[in-house]
Amino acid sequence: MINFIRTHKIPLEQPIPVRPVVHYTMGGIEVDFNSETRIKGLFAVGECASSGLHGANRLGSNSLAELVVLGRVAGEYAAQRAVEAQSVNQSAVDAQAKDVVARLEALHKQEGNESWSEIRDEMGTVMEEGCGIYRDQASMQKAVDKIAE
């Protein structure tokens, strides 16, 4: 970096602040040891799953190994469940689908002119400034107050 700065004659009058920040989240769909979600018969693996296999952190290269191993586990368990499954309760499936459609339609029909992406970006800034690595009671309270708005 310093070579780039010198080559391009970029003036440095103050140090560049460098600090640790959250660069990704380890969220995802919660699954059990068979990669099954809380919805029986629905499985999640790879980047969308939160298996807990790596605790609170995971090196990027580990995701491929996790996908291969847990993908196989999920596939084998799903195949076993399919063989053992009784007939499908179609009315229960239809009721769930109807509920999902109703919730999506309600979201689509919401009134207002606020942008979800702007709110998300603002929340990210608020959380970084108020609840990041460098924080104190005042900054955290300011974040709580802003979120309460």
UniProtKB/TrEMBL annotation:
MF terms in GO: electron transfer activity; flavin adenine dinucleotide binding; succinate dehydrogenase activity
EC code(s) of this entry: 1.3.99.1
Names of required cofactors: FAD
Top-level taxon: Bacteria
Keyword annotations from UniProtKB, A to Z: Flavoprotein, Oxidoreductase
Domain FAD-dependent oxidoreductase 2 FAD-binding: 11-64
Single GO cellular component term: plasma membrane
Residue runs in coiled coils: none
Entry keyword annotation includes Cytoplasm: no
Gene Ontology biological process terms, A to Z: anaerobic respiration; fermentation
Cross-referenced Pfam families: FAD_binding_2, Succ_DH_flav_C
Enzyme class, spelled out: oxidoreductase
Domain named Fumarate reductase/succinate dehydrogenase flavoprotein-like C-terminal: residues: 120-149
Record's protein name: Fumarate reductase flavoprotein subunit
Species in which this protein is naturally found: Haemophilus influenzae HK1212
Upper classification of the organism: Bacteria, Pseudomonadati, Pseudomonadota, Gammaproteobacteria, Pasteurellales
